[in-house]
Structures are given as structure tokens and as C-alpha cells.
From TrEMBL:
Residues 55-222 form the Glycosyltransferase 2-like domain. Keywords: Transferase. It comes from the Bacteria. This is Glycosyl transferase family 2. The keyword Transferase applies. The keyword Zinc does not apply.
Amino acid sequence: MRRKKRPVPRLKSNADLHENARKRVEKYNHGLNEGYHQGLQAGYGSYNSYFEGTSIIIPSYNEIEWVKTCIEGIMDHTDLAYEIIVVDNGSADGIEHYLKQLDGQVRYRILSQHAGFTGAANRGFMMAKGTTILLLSNRICPTENWLDNMLICLNSDRDIGMVGPVSNALNGNQRMELLYDNMEDMHESAIMNNMSDSSAWQRTELLSTKCLLFRRELLEQVGYLDEGYQDAPFEEEDYCLRVKLQGYSLVCAKDTFVHLALIDEALELEHNDTKNAAIEASKSYYVNKWSTPSHVLIDLADRRKAEGALMRSLGAAAFYPQEIAVKGLGEMIFWISNGVRRPIEGEWEQPVIQLSQIDILRWAIGESISAEEASIRRSVMHEDGADSIHHNGTITKKAEDSYYYIENGKKRKIISLLAAEAWNLLTRRQTILSPAELDAIPEGLPIIAPIRLRQAL
């Protein structure tokens, strides 16, 4: 028997048609808005949520085959929880297509402008969700127990800030020559070496950024790599020094061997002049920034007990001056005073120091301050006066190019002319004190230069 067709419901008029369409649009917009707000809340909720594992950051540039080898090595030799984040400097070798094919196994970011190894590393740090972070050159070939052993070392002592492995092509304490003729032999030799052994952990003064493991909280205390070095070697010296300023030690885990593929000699010679110029510029920046790095650490050792609580609460910001205006990623400008950041309300036309968002968040948020009041406080520090030594923000000079910043009743040594210029401190009121007067003022933590960034972080 033929089934009777159901009559198609018809709208009575054009008005009904419009009303029905309107309701559908309303329902759609309601669902869209609900979905948007739920997604937004979920995003906010997970922004600061981290997983118990390691974020492996791999900067890359036109070395897709090494990236593939590195990623495959990680997957073959890593049993612990991890995520891989590739940050590419706009390569022309098809890496984006390759990364897409990995179907979500690797998170990645293709930068629109070349930011170098350091810039790509910083972008990866910002993306990282692990409780530990590993910066890794794409020319590193992971081996058996590589990450396990470094994590055992890192977690053995809270005073250990960073851990690095040994390799065939690293320098100093991190260089180890294992005998092998091919990659298969290399892995066999690494298995024999990579047996966790605390007696093989050696304290050191410098670690390579080619394979560098640390905790997330160290990043939050020390901050990003300084992009002022433009990928020349001294970026490693700078970061290691900043880590040691926080009281952490560096350890070379000799029970962890990884292979580092060497750069082709012909390619190395082709870019030799450019590389040498970058090294010289980097060295000059390092010397101008730190002046005498060893003295900074020696001088600080005597004050670590007295200032330890401040250093733990503020991290690198403990080495920044106060009574200054700063801003991070947003448009909000803050006045730094008494260990807090106070939002400046009103139009601010005075100089502002640009810092990373990690730097800004180290200071707890305080009550807002009017632009007028902050301007008055700033102007006081630029006026001459007999009682100027009693004001915060006064500069006094001890010897040629040796400056101190008076802050909350303490004198803080400005470790270099570059640091003074970076914070605009040389425009402040300057006084001349006798050696006896200066010695009578208690010593505070030194003031270091903020890092330079070539991107918004």
C-alpha cells in the first residue's frame, strides 16, 4: 500500500516567513555567543594551567631534515610526559607542511619575521605548558634515557637551576668524545654511558643553550633570553649569569650523552665574516652590560642572606630600580614603588621602560596612582637640593663611571653604564658624597640592565 504523503507545512504569509527567519537567526546568534563565551572562559581557565611534564622547544630555520631527525629521536627515546614545540623562523624548506602532517603531535609556530635562535626560543618559552622546559637545537640527536637522567639530576636538589648533557661537539665540561663511526654505534655507546649516576654530575659555570633543561619557575624568576645578543655565543654567558644571580647552580650531567650534528664546513666558511662580526658585537654588548661579571657574583654573595626573601619574591625584578614607570604587553603603564606596580591613571607623558610580561608580573599589583602624583614624584628625583640624599632615586658617583642609586635608605650599585642608560637613571639628580658618607649608607642589591627584546613577549 502506498504511504500517504505528509502535507508540507506552509507559512501563512511573508510576515510569518520573516518571523521564522528572525527566530532562527536569534537562536544561531545565541548559540554562537554562548559557545564563544564558554570557549573564552575555558581558554582563560587553561592559560595558566600546566601539565606535569617537559616542554621541548626546538627553534629552526631551513633545516627540515635535522628537525625531522630530532623529532623522531625524541619520540623514539622519550617515555616521560612531554610536548614538542617547534618555532620556525620562516623557513623556505616546506617545514610547515611537514609539521601539519604530524596531525597534532607537535605544536608549532611559523614566525613571519626571522627572530633567530634566541627569539624563536623565547616564543617557545611563552607557548610552553610543561612544568619543566628543555631548549633543544634541531641538530641534537636524543639518546636512551637522555631526558630521564637530566630530570633526575635537576630534581635531586632545588638549588640546581639548569642541567645540560655532554656531547661530541659541545665545549668545556660538556664535551665528551665517545668512539663511534656511525649513528647506530653512537646509540650503542650512549646506552653504555647513559646510566643514571649522581657521581657523574659536575657543577659548572656555563651551560650550552643547545640542550638546556630547567624548571618553569626558573623562567618566571629569571625571564627570557636576551635578544640583544643576536644569536652570538654570549647569550649563554648572559643567561647563566642571571641564573647564578638568583642563587642557583648549573650542573653538567655526564651520565647523559647526546649527539650534536656538526654544521657543514663549507657552509660555515661561507658565513664566516658575518659570524665573526656578530660575535664581536655580542661580546661588546656583554662587556658593556655586565662590566665585571665575576665581581657582581662575589659582591652579591655577602648580601644573599639579608636580601634572600626579596630575591625569592621578586626574582630578577629584585635587581631592577624602583620609582620608575614601566609597561608590558598591554597599554597599562605602572609606577614601580615599594615592591609593587601601581597602575597610573590619566595621561602619562614621561618616559616609560618597556619590559616583558614576565618582568611586569613579578611585581604584585598595588593601588592606582594618578599621573599627576607620579609625575611629581618623578620630578622630585630630577631636582637639585641640599637634602637630596634623603630622596629615593638620587644618583651618587663613587669613581669614574661607578654609580650608586639611593633607594629606601640603601645604596644600590649600578653595575654598568649600559644599565644606567637602559633605566634612564643618568637623567636623575646626582650628588657627590665623600667615601665616608657613601660607606655609611647600607648596601642593597645591585641594579642590572633589563633584557632587550625584538618582539612582544
